Amino acid sequence: MKKLLVAGFCLAAWSGAPALAADMPLKAPPLVVPATNWSGFYLGIVAGGEIAQTSTDFVFADIPGLAGTPTRVSPDGSGGLIGAEAGYNYQIGKFVGGFEGDVDYARISGQGTSISPNGFFMAPTQQKINLYGTVRGRVGFLATPDLLLFATGGAAFADLSMTTAFVPTGILGGNCINSSCGNGAVSASKVGSTIGAGLEYALSNRMSVKAEYLYVDFGHTSTVFPITLAVSTMAATSSYQEHIVRAGLNFKLGAP
Where are the alpha helices (DSSP H) in the chain? Predict the structure, then answer.
C-alpha cells in the first residue's frame, strides 16, 4: 500500500512540472549596444569665441620710414561666433579621416591709433573680420571607441575690411585745412589658411560633441589713398589672423 502511495505522489509531481515551468517568466536577452561607427556624413552647429590679431603698416610717398609716417597700428579685437558645419568621416580600425567645412558669423572689430615718430600726425584705424569659413581635412586616432583625437588643416576664407585716416595730432595747431590729411578704406574677400586640433566624443551612433582650436591666417589687404597738400599718397597694408576656440554638436546622417 505504501509503495502505491509513493508511486502516485511521484507521478503527480512529474506531471505538474511542465505546467510549472510554463508559468515561470522567461529571462530577457541582454541588451546589445552597437559599437560606435564613425563613418558617414554629418551636419552640425558650432559656437565659441575668438581673438583677432590684426595690424596695419603705413608707407608715405613710397618711402618706408619717412618722417611723419605713422608707425604700425594693431587694432586687435575679440568676440563670439556661431556657425554651421558639414563633413564626412571614414573609419579604418582606430583611425578616422575625412573632411569638414563650416561657415561662421562673427563681426570681429578692433580699433587702434598710431602716431608718427615726430608726433605731428596720427592714424586712427579700424579693422573688421565679418563672415568667414573654412574647408579642412581631418585625421584622428580613437583613444577609446567613443573618443576621437584629431588634427585638422586646410583653407580659410573671409570678408575683411579696414578704414583709416591720416590727420594731424594738433600739437602744432594743425588741422585738415592747413595741414596734410587723407582717408583710406578697403574691403575684400580673401582666401588664407588654417590649422588646428581638437577632440570629439560620440554620445551615440547618431550624435557627437566636440571642442577644437583653430589658428587662421586670412592674409593681407592693401590700399593707397591721396594725402592733401603733400601731392603724394599713403599706402596701408593690413594683416588679419585669428585664434578660435569653439564647441560643436554634430548629427550623423543615416545612422541606426
Answer: 2-23
